[in-house]
Amino acid sequence: MELFLNRISDGLSNGATYALIAMALVMIFKATTLINFAQGEFAMFGGFIALVLATERGLPMWIAVVGAMAITAVLAAGFERTLIRPFDPSDHLPLVIITLGLFLGINALAGIIWRFDPRAFPELFPSGNALTWNTVTLSWYTIGTIVTVAVVAGGLTLLLNTTKIGLAFRAVSSNLESSELAGIKVGPTLQFGWAIAAAVGTLGVCVFVASPFRQLEPNVMVTGLIFAVSAAALGGLDSLGGAIAGGLAIGLVQSIGVPYLGIPSELSLLAAVAVLMLVLLFKPSGLFGTPQVERV
Amino acid sequence: MSETSTSPELVLEVKGLEGGYGQIQVLHGLDFHVADGEIVIILGANGAGKTTTLRAVSGMISRKGSIKLRGEDISSAKAPDLVRQGVAHVPQGRGTLPELSVEDNLRVGAYIRDDNEIDKDIEQWFDVYPVLRERKNQRAGSLSGGEQQMLAVSRALMSRPSLLLLDEPSLGLAPIIVAELFERFAEINKETGTTMLVVEQNAQLALGIGDRGYVLESGAIFTEGPADELINDDAIRKAYLGV
Amino acid sequence: MATTSPKFLFTEGTNRYRAYKIAGFALLALLILIVAFAYNDTGSITLFDNSYKLSITRVTKSISFMVAILGLQVVAGFTGQLSLGQGFFFGTGAYISAWLVADQNWAWFTSLIVVVPVCFVFGLVAGIPALRIRGLYLALVTLGLAAIFPSLIKLDFLLPYTGGAAGKTVDSDFIPPSWLPLDGMINALHSLPLIGQYFGDGEGMSNKEEQRVWTFFMMVILALICFKLVSNLIKSRPGRAIRAVRDNETSAAVNGMSLSFHKTMSFGVASALGGVGGMIYVSELGIASEGDFTQLISILFIVGMVVGGVGTLSGAAIGGLVIAFIPDWASSTQNLPGIPERWLQGPTGGLILGIGLIVITFVLPGGVISGVRKIRGRFVEVLPKTPAIQLAGAGAAVSADESDIPNDSLGSESPDLSTTVDES
Q1: Does B80 touch chain A (CB under 8 A)?
Q2: Is residue A106 part of a domain?
C-alpha cells in the first residue's frame, strides 16, 4: 500500500509533464486540427534556453524559465508565420511534413549547439519531501509539478475566456469562416495559439528535467512526445481539460500499472502507444473531446 | 456610425463582377447597386450564383470587377477588413460558432468594436430575441435552427454594420419562423437604417419586405426592378418565384 | 543551352522509343558497373580539404533505404495514407533475417521467404486501423508503432532472438561464385586510359572487396526486382484502384472498388518492402541494433519520399541516396570554409535534412524528380501511342495521367542516372 502511494506520487509528477506538453499539442489541434510533431522539440529547445539563461546569464531559475517561455513563444510565432501560414490549412500532408522537418532540424540544431551530453538542470522546487508518513513520501517536486499544471490550466482558462484574443482564438477554433466574417484575422490568431503552445511546452520540459532524477539532453522529448500525444488523444485532442486528465492517466499507468503487472519498464511506452491506438480506433474524440473531430 | 443620410447615397455599387471557385467561374459580369437604407433582394434558382455574389462582395472569394462601398473601391479587400468598413455577412446555413456560448457569439460579433456599449447592445439583442437571453450560457450548437439564425443575425448586427448581407436566412426553417424573421428584418431596417442585401429563394416573403430586386440566372442579371413590380410580373412569377 | 532547342520526340510503341528506353536501361547498367568497381574503397572526393571516402557499402545501405521508401510510396504516395511507421517494418525485416541467418544458418536471400510474408501480415494488421481512421490520426498511430519498436525488441521473451540492447550480430557474407572473374574485370577497367586510375590498383581485389562488390550486385538486382514489381503493380488494375483511393475515396467506392481491401493490401505490400529493405540493411551492416530502428528512421523515410518525389518510383531511389549519403557525408566532414567547425561536428546531417525537407516542400513540392522531369521535358517528349486516332481531349487526358505517375520503371530510371553521377 505504501509503495502504491509512492508510485501514485511518481505517476502524478510524470503525468503532469505529459499534461503540459499535451496541452501545447491541444492548443494547436483545437485551432487547426493539426498535430505539431515538433512540439516536443520546441519544448526541449526552450529547456536549453532556460538553462543557458540561468547558468550563463546568471538569472534566477524561475525568471530564466519565464524568459525561455517568452523566447520560444516568439520563435514559434515566427515559424507559424513563415512556414505554416503559406499552406492551405485543410491539406494536412505538407503541414505534417513541415513539422517533421522542424522536428529533425531543431533536434539536430540543439545537438550541434549543446551536444548530447546530459546536463543537470537546476531544481525549480524545494528538494526533499513535503510529507512523510512511515515510508510514504510526497516530494516537493511532485507537489510543484501538480501546482504548475494547475496554474497553467487556470492561466489558460483565464486567457481564453476573459481576453479578446482568447475570444478570437476560441472563435477561430469553432468556425473559421464565421470568425473571418466577424472581422477576426485568422493568421495572427493562430500565431497566438502557436506562441502559447510553445511557452506551455517549454514550461513542461523545464518542470520535467527539474526532477533530481532527470537531466536535459537534446533527445529528452523524442519519446516524451509519444507519451504526450497519447495523453492528448486519451483526453480528446481538442480538450485542454482532457489533456490534463490524459496526461495524469498516462503517468499513473506508467508508474502503477507497469510495475504492478510485473512487466519491464520498456512496456511503459508500449502501454502509452496501446492507449493511443485503442482511443483513436474506438473513440477518436477521446474522453472529453468534441465528437465532430471524427470528421478529420 | 453613419449619420442618417438625407440623400439616397449608394452604399454598394457593383460593376462587372466576376468570381468563382478555383478554375470555375460562376459570375459573369454582374452590375447592381444598393442605396442607403434599402432592402435589396437577389433571387434566382439553385446554382444561379446568388451565394457566390455575396461571398464576392464580402471578400470571401477572389473576384474581379469594381465593387464600391460608399464610393470606395473594396474589390481587393479581405473579409476581416470589410467588417471594419461596416459590411456584415450572415453566411448560408447559419454563421454561428457552435462551441461558443450564445453570449460569446455576440461578443465575437462585436470583436471589431472598442467602445463600451457592447454590453448594452447585447442586452438590446436579448430584448429583441428573449429566447437568446434564456440560453445565453448554452453552446450555440445546441440551439434550434431558428434560434441559431436569430443568433447569427444578431451576431452580425453586433458589429453595427451599415450594410448587412443575408444569405438565404429562410433555409431549413419552419414557415412561421421565417415569417417572423423577415418581419424582424423589416423592423431592424426601419429602426436602425441598416441597408440590407438579401439572397433568397423564398421570393414571396423576401420581396414582401424588399424595396428592389434582382433576378440572377447563370451568373448574370436576368432582370431587375422594384419589388412590387417583380412580385406581380407573371413571367418571373412562373419562372423564378415558383408561384 | 538554347531554351528553344528542338525536342527529341518519341512515340510509344515505335522502335525509336524502344531504343530510347533501352539506352536508359543500358546507362543504368553501366552506372551500376562503374559504381561497383570504382567505388570499391578506392575512390574518395575531396572538398575543401575534406576527403570523403566513397565506399560501396554506403551505396548498398542506400539501396536498403530505397526499397523501404519504395514501400512508403505504395502506402503513402500512391494510396495517400500518411504512414509514419515504415521503420517498424524495416526493423522487423532486419531482425527476422538477422536471426535466421545468425542462429538458423539460413542464407540471406532465403530469409526473405520468412521476412516477406511476416512483414506483409504485420502490415495488413497495422493497416486495419487505417480503415477506421485517416489523415493525422493515422499518422499518430503509425508514429506510435515506429516509436515502440526499440522497446519491443528489448522485451524479455524476445531477448534470445534479438540480442536486446547489445544488438544482433550476424557474421555471414556473400561469397561471390568462383566462376565470376571479378579480379579480371577490375584489372581490365584499371588498364583503361585516363579513367583507369579510379579502378583499383591493377592487382585485383581482396576477398573483402570482392564480397562487397558481390553484395552490391545482389542487392541491386533485388532492388530492381522490387521496383519492377511495384511498377507493374501500379499499372495493374489493383494499382489503378489504389490510386483512385488516394484521389477520391468516395468516388472510388461509388465505382465499386473495395476500399478496405485495397487500403489494407497497400499496407501489406508496403510493409513487405520495408522488411526487404531491412534485410538488405542488416546484411550490409552485419548487425541489427535497436538504435537504428527508432521513430527517427521512419521520419527519415518520409524525408526521402518527399525529397525524391511523393508518388514516384524514381523518387524512392533518389530519396534513398539522399537519406543515406547526406548524414554520412556531413558526419565525415569536419571543416568547411566559412562554417565554424562546431557546426560540422554535431548532427549536421539531421539539420541539413530537416531544412532540406522544409525547403523542398516550399520550392519543389513534387520533389527532386519533378525538377528532373521538368528539365528532361525540355529535351525529350514521349507521345502516347496512336495519338491520331484518339480525340485530342482523350489524348491529353492520357498524357496527363501518365505524367502523374512514373511513366514506367525503365523510363524513370534514366533521370536517376544523372543524379547518381552527380553524387559520385
Answers
A1: yes
A2: yes
